[in-house]
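Run log // design_07
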């Protein structure tokens, strides 16, 4: 079979590959602690499940508008207005099957051959993959540990040129758990305005910020007209498998993104959208309870990792990931690279984690753990990792 050339430019998300390998080990009778995949281990709140069941019984089994059901778009616009403090209307909202399609549709709509897109590295791997797929040039913006994995503004300035069409930011950040400060956002906004660049602000972890208030770049004057906010239900309401997310953007772009949705998926499942209205309008206590438990787990995993000789880990301010520096252990164990160490950790200790390089070349020397797992499992993983690392001498 001869594939189209563009397929050679498409990347992937390693978390799913590691999950498959971990499951294969489990099928052989091995016990694995899963800290590789980024999803809450909690169940979707019962009121949301009930709303979906009710919607199915009420006949929400047909196609809906590509941009989303009017009631959900309106609910999201109101929620965004409240949470971001800037007025939004329903026409700016496009609902998609997960937040991920917003990345794909927005990059496809804004960047092509000859254009450049700046993206965080380490960062969510789909950004780089889709930029390349779209035929644009992917320009990595390094997030370094000595800057707490925040954007280096001078470096950002140096990467901007007249071909720069789009800048992607993600705060709270996957995989580093870092959060952009109000000053960072202000400086980024100034650069975007001065150079007429659109900004895709991936705010999928906006509720999972453990220190300080959440800030969005769309709050700065001049930014609502050039910002696409990506958010969704997967993380906030433990709804990863439902597949529903959204983008909030200038109206003309929303119309184009909806046209892409028409070409790809027609619409997001309508009964799920009805449940989305309940998720936003209904009680929020379970969501907040889940987030409080993430914070407890964060503290436990950071403490445990820092007790392993050769490992050091910053305290992340948001999301549910830690990004420990394991350079010394990789060297001590004479591993070819961090990926080889992550593979060994799965095989030797039954701990599934991702190499930092699953998030770009600047992730070398780091591992990513998702701590969306029970304190008991986190403790087990830390114990096994400490024992395995000790064997390296
Ligand atoms: N953005 C980031 C940074 C993520 O980590 C993820 C999921 O892992 C997503 C977006 C997409 O989430 P979903 O498509 O499940 O809504």
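design_07 sequence
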């Amino acid at each position: 079979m001869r594939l189209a050339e563009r397929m050679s430019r498409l990347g992937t998300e390693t978390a799913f590959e590691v999950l498959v390998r971990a499951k294969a080990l489990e099928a052989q009778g091995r016990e694995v602690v899963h800290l590789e995949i980024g999803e809450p281990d909690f169940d979707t709140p019962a009121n949301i499940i009930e709303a979906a069941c009710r919607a199915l019984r009420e006949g929400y089994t047909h196609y809906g508008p590509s941009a989303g059901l009017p009631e959900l778009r309106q609910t999201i616009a109101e929620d965004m207005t409240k949470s971001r403090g800037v007025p939004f209307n329903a026409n700016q909202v496009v609902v998609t099957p997960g937040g991920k399609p917003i990345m794909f549709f927005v990059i496809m709509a804004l960047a092509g051959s000859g254009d450049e897109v700046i993206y965080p590295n380490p960062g969510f791997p789909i950004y780089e993959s889709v930029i390349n797929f779209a035929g644009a040039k992917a320009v990595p913006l390094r997030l370094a540990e000595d800057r707490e994995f925040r954007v280096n503004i001078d470096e950002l300035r140096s990467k901007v040129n007249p071909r720069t069409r789009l800048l992607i930011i993600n705060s709270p950040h996957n995989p580093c758990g870092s959060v952009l400060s109000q000053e960072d956002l202000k400086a980024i906004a100034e650069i975007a305005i001065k150079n007429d660049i659109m900004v895709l602000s991936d705010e999928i972890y906006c509720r999972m910020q453990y220190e300080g208030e959440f800030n969005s770049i769309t709050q700065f004057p001049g930014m609502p007209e050039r910002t696409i906010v990506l958010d969704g239900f997967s993380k906030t309401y433990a709804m990863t498998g439902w597949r529903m997310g959204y983008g909030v953007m200038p109206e003309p772009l929303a119309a184009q993104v909806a046209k892409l949705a028409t070409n790809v998926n027609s619409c997001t499942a309508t009964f799920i959208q009805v449940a989305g209205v309940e998720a936003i309008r209904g009680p929020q206590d379970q969501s907040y309870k889940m987030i409080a438990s993430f914070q407890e787990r964060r503290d436990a995993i950071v403490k445990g990792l820092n007790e392993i000789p050769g490992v050091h880990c910053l305290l992340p301010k948001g999301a549910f990931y830690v990004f420990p520096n394991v350079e010394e252990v990789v060297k001590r164990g004479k591993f070819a690279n961090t990926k080889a160490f992550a593979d060994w950790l799965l095989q030797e200790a039954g701990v599934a984690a991702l190499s930092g390089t699953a998030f770009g070349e600047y992730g070398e020397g780091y591992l990513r753990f998702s701590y969306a797992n029970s304190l008991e499992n986190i403790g087990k993983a830390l114990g096994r990792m400490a024992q395995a690392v000790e064997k390296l001498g």
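The mean pLDDT is 97.
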